[in-house]
């Protein structure tokens, strides 16, 4: 259920009443029929992401049937913003002032086309008052063009005043309005000056439940055709909103305005029993009632595919963990017979004690993740690429997010053999050789010629090796779920100069943000975190990996103890085609079940820069928790980001003013500690 309209005061924008449009189905609808039964409703949210429609010159909104509930608020909001600007400018002119005393919205939008394809002519009564109010917001027809498309010839009075910009279209013989009307207007928009966006339902988000389902709201045939038309016009963008009806109904509950004094806002509670059931069961976006849940489970291809993939994963993960334990124990026993000072002899038993305690963990769905603010230490998300993108837009990852190969849009893999051929071009490579002697328990890499390193890697009778400091080689390594999200690109794009550099810059942090992991079967890493509070994205190109982790909530206690983690690590099973998103501060100790090649990228989230600095302070206090030194570029980069944050650079989203003040103090302290300038 979504708010379809609210009455905003012209001067303040505050609302006293909100209107909902509901389908005549479900427990909430039954209660809503009786004024006495529905005394209190809880507002939950907000969820989803800002489409930033005000940044587009041309906007097309498309809805079918009750899908208008997800579309009309966008038109109303933009119209109210423009109306506010017009009235403020007029008041300023009357007062003979040079500049307005209040800030203007200054939206770029020049035209909004809204198409509502009704399933039945009677549906117009749902939105009659709201459409009339919308028309009053644009009395000179400068912004809005509304199209109501009816399935049968009209007999009743139109819901608004008809003119060249507000039209009711009825079927005529031999006319396909979708092709000659909506599609024709969309094609026009592709040639209009400025940026154009079509807001419509995408079929690629079907599993994200009722909280995040997309929008040219209506049935799949209609919305799919709208989306395809937008895609055919390459200059246009296509976007989604957060409402899609679960089933098209001819008889929705009548729209009713509810006084806001009867709505108590509570962020963490869901009052809709159907939505709560959906979140608990991890189902798709269809509304599942107790009467048809069994039928849904049996017949929904979306849920079946997801559940099958998860069950298969859990079985394979358990089997892989058992096999890996047995093989690693054999490796440790072989190492015990070698020189006692080698890494495998000195450290193998220590890692095996951790290995013995590893557990599989508890996967949750994307919707379960979005509805929670706290998580069990064993939980991680399994979801599709598209779902992962929405999770990342909503907030920084709180738990690991795993996209299985079966659910992953990223399919381009770099074969291990091809990568090893590429490495032969380098004169030397840095390696950790588990057969090396480690005097005084200090593990140091050594540099060998590339031919020797690859020979050691390929020799099955030789101890494991890890190749180190491998810069990114794979083309376009950033996962699709992170592509196009500017908040996660601030590490790369926040630089002192743009364009051609006039002088060389230290860029060790920026350059390490893309990397390869190449490990021989049996290679492992002791528990550590990735430096400087990065979120790490990993794609399995070739081979099998167990990625054991401990949640970031346990980081401080582990760092202070100076010992191994006391709790069991959660083992994630990675196979070719899987993508893992690891939150900042996650302790991890991966193990290579086979020869493995992975592509990785590291990211900061501009919204969480304070947390990144706090984590870097912890690394400085307890240097043993990370296996890398402070990057030379770090102090300068966080200082530059401080300046961007202070100026409220619109390229990124930022934290609060209080966060900024604390962040600035930590940047200054870090600069003093390192002897650098920030």
Number-wise, the strands total 25
What is the CATH topology of the largest domain?
Answer: Rossmann fold
Structural class: alpha/beta
For the record, what is the CATH homologous superfamily label of the largest domain?
Nucleotide-binding domain of ferredoxin-NADP reductase (FNR) module
Output the strand order for the largest sheet.
Answer: 12-13-14-22-19-25-18-17-15-16
Largest sheet: 10 strands, mixed
Through-space gap between termini: 49 Å
Radius of gyration (CA) equals: 29 Å
Question: Can you characterise this structure?
Answer:
The protein is α/β, with parallel strands linked by helices and 678 residues long. It folds into two domains: 3-299, Nucleotide-binding domain of ferredoxin-NADP reductase (FNR) module (Rossmann fold); 310-487 and 507-606, Jelly Rolls, CATH 2.60.120.650. The chain has 20 helices and 25 strands. The strands form five sheets. Strands 12-13-14-22-19-25-18-17-15-16 form a ten-stranded mixed β-sheet. A six-stranded parallel β-sheet has the order 7-6-5-4-8-9, with helices on both faces. Strands 20, 21, 23 and 24 form a four-stranded antiparallel β-sheet that branches. Strand 4, helix 2 and strand 5 (111-117) form a beta-alpha-beta unit. The longest helix has 36 residues, at 301-336.
Describe this protein with a few key phrases.
Jelly Rolls, elongated, 678 residues, 25 strands, alpha/beta, 20 helices, 34% helix, 6-stranded parallel β-sheet, Rossmann fold
């Amino acid at each position: 259920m979504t708010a379809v309209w609210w009455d905003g005061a012209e001067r303040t924008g505050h609302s006293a009443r909100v209107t909902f449009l509901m389908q005549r189905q479900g427990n909430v609808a039954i209660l809503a029929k009786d004024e006495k039964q529905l005394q209190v409703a809880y507002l939950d949210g907000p969820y989803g992401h800002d489409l930033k429609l005000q940044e587009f010159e041309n906007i097309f909104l498309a809805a079918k049937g009750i899908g208008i509930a997800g579309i009309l608020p966008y038109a109303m909001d933009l119209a109210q913003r423009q109306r506010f600007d017009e009235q403020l400018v007029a008041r300023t002119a009357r007062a003979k002032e040079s500049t307005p005393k209040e800030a203007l919205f200054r939206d770029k939008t020049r035209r909004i086309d809204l198409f509502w394809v009704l399933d039945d002519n009677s549906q117009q009564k749902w939105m009659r008052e709201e459409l009339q109010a919308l028309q009053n917001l644009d009395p000179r027809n400068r912004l809005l063009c509304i199209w109501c498309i009816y399935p049968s010839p009209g007999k009743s009075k139109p819901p608004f005043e008809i003119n060249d910009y507000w039209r009711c279209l009825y079927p005529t013989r031999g006319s396909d309005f979708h092709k000659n009307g909506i599609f024709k207007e969309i094609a026009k928009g592709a040639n209009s000056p400025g940026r154009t966006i079509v807001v419509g339902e995408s079929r690629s988000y079907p599993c994200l439940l009722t909280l995040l389902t997309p929008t040219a709201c209506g049935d799949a045939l209609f919305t799919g055709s709208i989306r395809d038309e937008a895609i055919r016009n390459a200059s246009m963008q296509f976007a989604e909103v957060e409402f899609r009806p679960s089933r098209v109904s001819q008889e929705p509950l009548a729209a009713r305005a509810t006084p806001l004094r009867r709505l108590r806002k509570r962020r963490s509670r869901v009052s809709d029993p159907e939505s709560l059931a959906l979140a608990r069961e991890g189902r798709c976006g269809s509304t599942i009632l107790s009467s048809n849940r069994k039928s849904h489970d049996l017949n929904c291809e979306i849920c079946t595919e997801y559940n099958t993939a998860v069950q298969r994963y859990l079985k394979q993960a358990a089997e892989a963990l058992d096999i890996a334990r047995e093989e690693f124990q054999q490796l440790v026993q072989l190492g015990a017979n070698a020189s006692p000072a080698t890494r495998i002899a000195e450290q193998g038993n220590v890692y095996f004690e951790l290995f013995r305690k590893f557990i599989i963990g508890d996967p949750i769905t994307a919707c379960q993740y979005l509805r929670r603010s706290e998580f069990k230490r064993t939980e991680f998300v399994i979801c599709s690429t598209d779902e992962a993108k929405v999770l990342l837009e909503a907030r920084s990852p709180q738990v690991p997010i795993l996209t299985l190969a079966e659910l992953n849009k990223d399919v381009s893999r770099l074969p291990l053999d091809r990568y090893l051929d590429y490495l032969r071009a380098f004169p030397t490579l840095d390696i950790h050789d588990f057969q090396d002697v480690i005097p005084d328990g200090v593990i140091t890499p050594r540099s060998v010629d590339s031919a020797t390193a690859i020979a050691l890697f390929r020799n099955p009778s030789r101890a494991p090796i890890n190749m180190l400091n491998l810069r990114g080689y794979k083309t376009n390594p950033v996962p699709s779920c992170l592509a196009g999200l500017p908040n996660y690109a601030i590490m790369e794009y926040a630089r002192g100069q743009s364009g051609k550099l006039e002088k060389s810059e230290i860029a060790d942090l920026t350059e390490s943000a893309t990397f390869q992991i190449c490990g021989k079967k049996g290679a492992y890493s002791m528990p550590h975190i990735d430096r400087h509070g990065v979120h790490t994205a990993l794609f399995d190109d070739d081979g099998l990996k167990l990625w054991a982790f401990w949640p970031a909530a346990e980081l401080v206690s582990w760092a202070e103890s100076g010992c191994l983690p006391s709790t069991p690590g959660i083992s994630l099973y990675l196979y070719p085609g899987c993508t893992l998103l690891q939150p900042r501060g996650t302790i991890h100790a991966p193990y290579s079940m086979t020869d493995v090649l992975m592509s990785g990228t590291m990211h900061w989230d501009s919204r969480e820069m304070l947390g990144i600095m706090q984590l870097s302070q912890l690394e400085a206090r307890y240097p043993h928790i990370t296996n890398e030194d402070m990057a030379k570029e770090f102090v300068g980069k966080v200082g530059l980001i401080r300046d961007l944050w202070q100026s409220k650079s619109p390229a990124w989203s930022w934290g609060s003013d209080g966060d900024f003040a604390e962040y600035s103090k930590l940047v200054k302290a870090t600069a003093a500690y390192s002897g650098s300038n920030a």
